[in-house]
Amino acid sequence: MFTGIVEELGEVTAVESLDDACRFRLRGPVVTEGAKHGDSIAVNGVCLTVVDHEGDEFTADVMAETLNRSSLGALTVGSRVNLERPTAVGARLGGHIVQGHVDGTGRVLERKPSENWEIVKISLPADLSRYVVEKGSITVDGISLTVVDAGPDYFTVSLIPTTLALTTLGLKQPGDPVNLEVDVIAKYVERMLGDRASAEGPAAR
């Protein structure tokens, strides 16, 4: 489990295309400290498994399912990425519960800078809109953010200077894709209420 608090801005150093997958080599001095084969590291919000680790770089394989559901397929050598290690048991939950399981992708629609923050508008797939609410939590490229405004096909977030400086959202421009993970609690509640309604039957409703 992750919390959506990005530890560092890493970089893609190599991309190897395989038959139905892709292997990335990424540089991240912070997240590779003490890393070993089989560890998990979130890359732009996608939970990946460390295949190999040498110095301040690690490699990870990305299957076709992940490439189809996320924006990782658009990464090239030199791309900057948000990196986070799983949270330790007993550690502070600085953001919200993040699984590293991307639900879909959106695109940056517009940016509105101001003196001390910036409002970013991001497109929202129709099948995810019911999980996004004003002042709720959402993960964008692995960053835990609070929703400012939630529309039928978009949402907005307000970014402080630290987020702009230390994550990929400071670099994204209109049209760029971003990974989205909605609050898992909302999905569990929806499933539980649906199962309950089915069990009670039409008469109970």
Automatic annotation (TrEMBL):
<feature type="repeat" description="Lumazine-binding">
    <location>
        <begin position="1"/>
        <end position="96"/>
    </location>
</feature>
<comment type="pathway">
    <text>Cofactor biosynthesis; riboflavin biosynthesis; riboflavin from 2-hydroxy-3-oxobutyl phosphate and 5-amino-6-(D-ribitylamino)uracil: step 2/2.</text>
</comment>
<comment type="subunit">
    <text>Homotrimer.</text>
</comment>
<dbReference type="InterPro" id="IPR026017">
    <property type="entry name" value="Lumazine-bd_dom"/>
</dbReference>
<protein>
    <recommendedName>
        <fullName>Riboflavin synthase</fullName>
        <ecNumber>2.5.1.9</ecNumber>
    </recommendedName>
</protein>
<dbReference type="Pfam" id="PF00677">
    <property type="entry name" value="Lum_binding"/>
</dbReference>
<keyword id="KW-0677">Repeat</keyword>
<feature type="repeat" description="Lumazine-binding">
    <location>
        <begin position="97"/>
        <end position="193"/>
    </location>
</feature>
<keyword id="KW-0686">Riboflavin biosynthesis</keyword>
<dbReference type="InterPro" id="IPR001783">
    <property type="entry name" value="Lumazine-bd"/>
</dbReference>
<feature type="domain" description="Lumazine-binding">
    <location>
        <begin position="1"/>
        <end position="96"/>
    </location>
</feature>
<comment type="function">
    <text>Catalyzes the dismutation of two molecules of 6,7-dimethyl-8-ribityllumazine, resulting in the formation of riboflavin and 5-amino-6-(D-ribitylamino)uracil.</text>
</comment>
<dbReference type="GO" id="GO:0009231">
    <property type="term" value="P:riboflavin biosynthetic process"/>
</dbReference>
<dbReference type="InterPro" id="IPR017938">
    <property type="entry name" value="Riboflavin_synthase-like_b-brl"/>
</dbReference>
<dbReference type="GO" id="GO:0004746">
    <property type="term" value="F:riboflavin synthase activity"/>
</dbReference>
<keyword id="KW-0808">Transferase</keyword>
<feature type="domain" description="Lumazine-binding">
    <location>
        <begin position="97"/>
        <end position="193"/>
    </location>
</feature>
<dbReference type="InterPro" id="IPR023366">
    <property type="entry name" value="ATP_synth_asu-like_sf"/>
</dbReference>
